[in-house]
Amino acid sequence: MARDLKKLISEMTLEEKAGLCSGADFWHTKAVERLGIPAVMVSDGPHGLRKQDQEGDHLGINDSIVAVCFPAACATASSFDTEMIYHMGDVIGQECQAEDLSIVLGPAVNIKRSPLCGRNFEYFSEDPYLAGKMAAAYINGVQKWDVGTSIKHFAANNQEHRRMSVSDEVSERTLREIYFPAFEEAVKNAQPKTVMCSYNKINGTYSSDNHWLLTKVLREDWGFKGYVMTDWGAVDDRVQGIRAGLDLEMPSSNGENDRKSVEAVQSGALDEKLVDQAVERILEVLFSYADHRHPEAVFDRDADHEKSVEIETQCAVLLQNNGVLPLKTAEKVAYIGEFADKPRYQGGGSSHINSSKVTSALSSAQKKGRAVTYVKGFPADADEENEEEIRKAVAAAVSADVAVIFAGLPDSFESEGYDRDNMKLPQCQNRLIEEVLKVQPNTVVVLHNGSPVECPWADDAAAILEMYLGGQGVGEATDQLLYGEVNPSGHLAESFPLHLEDNPSYLFFPGDGHTARYAEGVFVGYRYYDTKKMPVRWAFGHGLSYTTFAYDNLKVSAEQMTDDSALTVSVDVTNTGAVKGKEVVQLYISDLNGTAERPVKELKDFAKTELEPGEKKTVYLRICARDLSYYEEHLGDWYAPSGKYEILVGSASDDIRCRSQISFTTKKLLPMKVAGDTTIGDLMADPRTAETVQKMMKEAEKNSSLNQPSSEAGQDAVSDKMMQEMMAGMPLKSLVSFGMMNLEQMEGLITMLNQKL
Ligand code: BGC
């Protein structure tokens, strides 16, 4: 039965309506019992439920119910597997219904601008295309259960340092190309029921007050239909917020802001229709849950634990391997490092889950009767060197066939609420790894971290396996991957720079406390390293397998493309090794037209495919005009110049296997207003003015001495190329200076050209 919300709202008092626009407590909306409006509960995630039954907080301090901790977004993004994350969302959606949670607060899709952001572990990627695809699939999975999601934090919440007040100074082009598309993709292809606005300001305006952000971009440009809630405590000016399109304040301001809204309506400063609109949006989402409960839903912690293990096996990234992995059961193996026994599998703060059980690699190995010894070596929660432990670790490594060092970042090294100071592992771990490497060439390093670390010893390690923060089943997943029961198939969703200083945001991150200048613009992550041809430790998209894949037969459905057409790109991928495996096929686009400030290539599609040994499959990818485009601020739209583009298909951003060129023609014209400083080159390049200017130049050249060097020496000094370039860069006003026309003629020409635009 469709509810008549307008009628319901007409029966509410102004106080009830304003009241509904803020929370009742930390986690509930307000009920209006006399009208049958129930209170509903929302809860953090997003990689599991942090349902707080008792006292609420937004920092992960108080206890929450026992739940299942799935791999964090840093890991799930590395799967490049939209089906898998849809499935994870589906499991979490069911858990929500079973626990009576109307909304799970996520996914978190902010872009990893700097490796230092304390919350990178919760975010998907440095690449907006990948982040958007993963987010949309997760949302579709959760919302299948009539449970809502709250994609967060909209927008540009890319650092923890002063996140509640900092102003990000960032161009519209950069927002539209880098910091918005993950939200845009999710809104357009998954319609999250809610969006959570960020704490920070963008170019001086708090997100919670920002009409352009919350209404123009989110609703008018992208078609968002749900409601916008604040991050916890992110309200700035409640009345302006309602005008801007901010619907729900969380958690609440003890009625203070509700009162302000009421007074503003009464004084005429706020249109009551805007309050009604916010209430309607909230009620729509609220009843979409309350009227669609699923009594069949169960939260089966044991079954979901198994799923978390399976998911993590699809996320881990094999960064390096000289053949030492997979381990053989007959080998004597020394496990070193406390993470073997106490893995770090999730991050601190609002996403912290009270896990039903945690499995370690050590206990998994012991359960399976593997020939594994264990030495603590260093603690998992501190940077403390212990000579005796190092000695024991070295001894264990010497007497084993293979040493596996379980390294990673202690909890206090990365968390919500603050950023990291550096990109280093604790010194005690680097030292121990180096000591072990001196005595045991067959040394494998397993990493547990939420964001990149510098690995100065990487060239000497036999293998490196990145588990990220892999959820409560990380130990079993590690065991299965190390011993080859599952073949690793994750690829990096972020670059690992060699040094922190290489990162493009290094000079500007985290700003001066008041502002954070996004001066690197669109050159984030691999967009920068690739364009600068700067070596990195491991590139975006990199990931190895226990098998190998060959690519051939790249085909593009047409060589020409226009504004409205889309192309299918196909490539044959063959498993050329001896075991089954999954490959992540990545498609990048490169603009070959010398367009200003464009990264050398950008990810525009990907697909994950499983292949038996020897099997060949054709993988299909797609591109459309938007994939060739950049955001042209003068046009207020996406724009790709007519010309040549290259399609690059490969296994990583630094491992392109096949290429093809296409040509593109657009009907879009850039806005132009001709004036004295408009250049001849710009006028020649525009089809609306080219012909007139060409004719005019022919005439003008006759009258000019510029084109006719008077001596042989003059001819040597002035090459054709120089003349062409100088003319192209010459503003109209200079034609007068060089006697090619008089002032009156120039003004007439400007008027005539403007009439053509
Ligand atoms: C975080 C959000 C979280 C909220 C509720 C805030 O501090 O930024 O991501 O959903 O708290 O716990």
Structural summary, described in words:
- The chain has 757 residues and is an alpha/beta fold.
- Helix content is 31%, strand content 19%.
- Strand 14 (402-408), helix 15 (427-439) and strand 15 (443-448) form a beta-alpha-beta unit.
- Helix 12 crosses helix 16 (474-482).
- The longest helix is centred in the middle third of the chain and has 19 residues, at 272-290.
- Residues 44, 58, 105, 152, 231-232, 350 line the site of beta-D-glucopyranose (BGC).
**Number of helices, where a helix is a run of at least 4 consecutive DSSP H or I residues:** 24
Oligomer: single chain
The neighbouring-strand order within the major sheet is 10-16-15-14-11-13
Rg, alpha carbons: 29 Å
Helix content: 25-40%
Major beta sheet summary: 6 strands, mixed
The chain-level mean pLDDT equals: 96
| Class based on secondary structure composition and strand pairing | alpha/beta
Shape: globular
Bound ligands, each once: beta-D-glucopyranose
Percent in strands: 15-25%
Number of strands: 27
Unreliable spans: none
